[in-house]
């Protein structure tokens, strides 16, 4: 079919390509069967002058262009066009104009459709992956991001912010090079608002103040790490009108960490006091504890029994941890949560356990934001799920050190499926 250049075939391909004001004049296939080239011509009546816009007189042709286009049937597809040139009879000096169609940019080696396709492919992927799959140069794909994706948020495109999220992430191993991820959640969607270099309070304040007042007034809550810099920044900018909420997952990470420390020290003790065989028998129970579950099934409890009998401390630690998770799982008010937490702290202090000491300090210090978690608990998913989405974003940031590029990448991941969807947008 690709070697058949009958008028009917060419007409069929013209309709198939669906590029405005274009007719296919020839179709060819490479000898290795890997690429298809459509030679096309413009069907516009004339070339308008680039200065006055009036029709020009024909003046030969420019250089032929070979533009990569959307793959057809899995084959690399190219469109070849030799633009017409025209000379103006109206303008001074009779300037010449080379015809240019809307579906490609001057000096580009691909059509806009193909560019959009590449951006679509970048969603939840990487520049390296996309360039490899499409057999393109890394910079060709990378440059597209700068061409099509904004370098900072366009506030005019946002109606309301809802819940603001502030998260610190480290871009490299070893927890250096921090950046702050500012997100917002509205209508169950998490979008990126900005990426701030570092996590200094002053920088966060500066960013928050940069948000137009109209949008600042739509913030219902701010969800943060347990980090004073962020909390104080929110307090300073929103003057106490917006509740600061510590996300439960950040809190959970802290008491689970205490538990891990206890588990390790208890296992060291058991390993030295038990025979090798006795310790071996505990392996299934130890493996179960490593799963970081909040609750255990009846069957799992049976497995754990032997270990907990040998280490009452460990049993107690897990019990306290489960109780604390239970508070978070309850449909209660911040006031009720506060009472339950104070009661929990008192009982832990009365016990022999010391592993939760630093967690208790944090709990006392951040009591208000931690209890604020229960504010909107009943009528919305609130921060649930919010953090999981941010976690995915965080993983995607890894290894990117340029804050602007990071922002652009996150825009692609959060909005790209819609923005670059080939069936939605057309040039
Ligand atoms: Zn002119």
Structural class: alpha/beta
The count of helical stretches stands at 17
Question: What gross morphology would you assign?
Answer: elongated
Main β sheet profile:
5 strands, mixed
Q: For this entry, what is the oligomeric state of its chains?
A: single chain
CATH architecture of the largest domain: 2-Layer Sandwich
Q: Could you walk me through the main structural features you see in this protein, from its secondary elements to its overall organization?
A:
By secondary structure, the protein is an alpha/beta fold. Helix content is 45%, strand content 19%. It contains 17 helices and twelve strands. A hairpin with a 2-residue loop joins strand 4 (65-72) and strand 5. The longest helix is centred in the middle third of the chain and has 26 residues, at 248-273. It starts with 6 loop residues before the first helix and ends in an 8-residue tail after the last helix. The chain binds zinc ion (ZN). The site of zinc ion (ZN) has 7 residues, from loops.
Care to give the gist of this entry?
The protein is α/β, with parallel strands linked by helices.
